[in-house]
Specification:
By secondary structure, the protein is an alpha/beta fold. It folds into 3 domains: 66 residues, no CATH class; 186 residues, Rossmann fold (3-Layer(aba) Sandwich), CATH 3.40.50.450; 87 residues. It has a 7-stranded parallel sheet, with helices on both faces. The chain has a 4-stranded antiparallel sheet with strand order 8-9-11-10. The radius of gyration is 22 Å and the shape is globular. It starts with 8 loop residues before the first helix and ends with a helix.
Length: 346
């Protein structure tokens, strides 16, 4: 059923008037649908708690989008980890150094703005490069000192809106040891990438020196998930475990050494690159990854009419493939191959 059919003619007239009065008509179809959704919510749900939840969620997302907007063109890395790590611990210092390394490379560092690992990430990045997405909790009322000032902080009531912004805005992720919240963020991040609901991104699981935190986690995943066929063993390519700061930095930065972004054009996956592989290399990759392309060739392509209409990175090279959308771990291995020659030249 068309959701607009549930709206009265009077409401449609009001929505049309609002849309006609908008100065910015860009994406007017989506704005109209947003208004339809709000009207339906008001008409169909009188429960106060439901209305408060929906209202707060939309307001929080609006505030977060506005906060992130000035930094849209800057690459960002999100750091997850325990709020309970003290400042005088080696892990705190390591997180500071890790964040500082990315800030020096021109990346902004996004954290949950709280204490512990989050504070270390914000402190290491410095006030100019730190962004905070804070959660209001009974026992953590205030953001850390490095993001509490300025315009790079937004506060959230709900975990789901907070996680959305921590994941949506970043091009790479560093997950340090933590408790239930950190593990929840880690698994949700992996789930989004594994199912193709999030863009392919580098995910580094960072351990302290002489620690077995993530290797113990991986042992569980291997024995209880992969071995029981609850996930594809190739999904292990979606994350990288290390205790070395340089390796963590390189894993994230090298992901974008040639690969830039992707976009589906009908049933073709278009991958934008700094430099497309040669025709011979495309043929080799077609054979190597025939299991995810159905045997269809990988080929160099020109920008589609949709990309031209959106002015979507038209200066970049492109390749196209018929990706089956099922095996994201293999897609990550494919991206690694596209990056290999560029990395070797660095």
């Amino acid at each position: 059923m068309n959701q607009n059919s549930e709206i009265s003619e009077k409401d449609k007239i009001i929505i049309d008037e609002i849309c006609n009065d908008l100065v910015d008509k860009e994406n007017i179809d989506i704005k109209r649908q947003l208004l339809y959704g709000a009207i339906k919510l008001i008409h169909n749900h009188n429960d106060r708690l439901n209305l408060k939840l929906a209202s707060a969620a939309v307001t929080e997302m609006s505030n977060a989008f506005a906060m992130f907007a000035p930094f849209k063109e800057v690459r960002k890395v999100t750091i997850f980890g325990s709020a309970r790590i003290a400042q005088d611990t080696p892990l705190y210092e390591k997180t500071k150094e890790l964040a500082h390394t990315f800030a020096k490379a021109g990346w902004m560092v996004v954290t949950g703005a709280g204490p512990g690992i989050m504070a270390a990430g914000s402190e290491g990045a410095g006030a100019n490069m730190a962004i905070g997405v804070n959660i209001r909790l009974p026992f953590e009322n205030y953001p850390n000192a490095w993001v509490s000032a300025g315009e790079k902080l937004v506060e959230m009531k709900y975990f789901f809106t907070r996680k959305l912004m921590l994941m949506k805005e970043s091009s790479g992720f560093l997950v340090l040891p933590g408790g239930f919240g950190t593990l929840d963020e880690c698994f949700e991040l992996l789930t989004l990438v594994q199912t193709g609901k999030a863009e392919p991104n580098p995910i580094v699981l960072m351990e302290p020196d002489q620690s077995n935190y993530w290797h113990a986690w991986e042992d569980f995943v291997q024995k209880q998930v992969y071995n029981r066929q609850f996930a594809d063993p190739d999904d292990s390519s979606l994350y990288f475990i290390t205790a070395d700061i340089d390796q963590a930095r390189n894993e994230v930065l090298n992901f974008y050494s040639n690969y830039h972004s992707r976009r589906f054009i009908n049933d073709t996956l278009v991958i934008r690159l700094q430099q497309a592989p040669s025709d011979q290399r495309c043929n080799e990759l077609s054979q190597q990854f025939s299991d995810i392309t159905g045997g269809e060739p990988i080929r160099k392509v020109e920008p589609s009419k949709f990309e031209i209409h959106d002015n979507d990175h038209l200066s970049l090279d492109r390749i196209g493939l018929k990706f089956n959308k099922l095996h994201q771990g293999r897609l990550r291995q494919f991206i690694n191959e596209l990056n290999k020659e560029t990395i070797e030249r660095l």
